[in-house]
Amino acid sequence: MRIASPIEFDRDGRQTGFLRLPYSTHDSAYGFLPIPIACLRNGSGPSLLLLAGNHGDEYEGLSAVMKLIRALDPVRVQGRIICMPAANFPAVMAGRRASPLDGGNLNRCFPGDPGGTPTQQIAHYIEMVLMPLCGFAIDLHSGGSSLQYVPSGVGNMQPGNTPRNDTVIGMLNAFGAPVSFLSDTRRGAEESFASAAIRQGVVSIGTEAGGGGGASRAAVAIVERGVRQVLHHLGIVVDPGLGAVPGTRLLDVGGVDYFVFAEGNGVFEPLAEPGDMVEVGQPAAVIHDPATPWAEPQRVAFARDGFVLCRRVQGLASGGDCLFHLGTDR
Ligand SMILES: [Zn+2]
Questions:
Q1: Quick check: 267 and 211 in contact, CB under 8 A?
Q2: Which residues crowd ion ligand 1, with CB under 5 Å?
């Protein structure tokens, strides 16, 4: 393994610094990529890995984790919080979903490779070094540049593991996003953070906090409060001032019929918005071809009833782009 850490994970207090990922270039022969990391530990208790910047253009979690690192007095911790607020650091600094160095989409790179590209090395470090230190994890995402979500919690169900799945639902209720959706990791990428967490025995939740390539005040507030509520729920930071746990509306996300994709190129006119309830066959979008404005546009419809969790942000769409996805009440 090439990544070196300045953090002593078994030491009490607040430690901050950089994972050093050696990266030798024309401009920096002996240089390294400085990936920020923080550890807040006090005595014994559960350990939680708090990740943002898995995708570099998803900002709600970045703000929330940076603020927590600065504000939380480690004396209040009963256990340990390991924070990576800018996990794919090159992608975060570029404001891009994937790393500009190697094209790496961190959430499609697990379990990574200790001798691979920068993104593969980061994935390997997270799965093989940080996850084994932790019983719990929160991976803060949002819709990024191409999608806008109703602020959502995300849980990945492990088939047959009822105790783990119940703990995930408990964490989602504690996080208290307006909605939370559950998916079955058999349908998801083996290369995701959520699948890595299952491999390493870590109980994890995620978010799709908002998106659109920026962050709203309301979505950042939901993420900040949600993280505090999960830390309280797990007994890692007892926070009596939080009040009652708000709970969440639990939805399922199933197969391909939950998604609407563009089938051609053109101007994307949405006919539904996040938060709407829609029915099977209901028109979802019109795609107008600006090269032949007089031609009949392409029309796409929802393939099932459901709650609109997100829609595409950009005004143009190409064949294969995701325009919407739905959830259904459990
Ligand atoms: Zn993401």
A1: no
A2: 55, 58, 141
